[in-house]
Amino acid sequence: MDEGPVAMEKRAAGAEMSAAEEAKEAGSERAKRPHVSIGGKRMPMPRSRLARIVSGVALVLLGIVGFLPVVGFWMIPLGLVVLSYDVPAVRRLRRRMEVWWHRRRRKDGRRPDAR
After folding, report:
1. Residue range 41-47: average pLDDT?
2. What is the pTM of this model?
């Protein structure tokens, strides 16, 4: 496991790390891992760019045959969300849809910056 810069400095100085400091270092490593947030839930994705693209394309392609058992049409939007992490064109499309959805959900129909 890679140690963070703080941990390496403390180990070099011969100081012991407390459990809280070790947890903080482990948390910072977890924060660097790619993730997607859907509905307030944070889901980790593979660290490898190639693995993310392959899994996103596989989800979209399998979602197209969603009428078959085991696979479903729900896989298409999930695959697009995974692809949006690495593919700028899909990212722009996802962001536009997200903005449209939030504007639609507003009760008064105003933009957030309008007063």
Report:
1. 84
2. 0.57
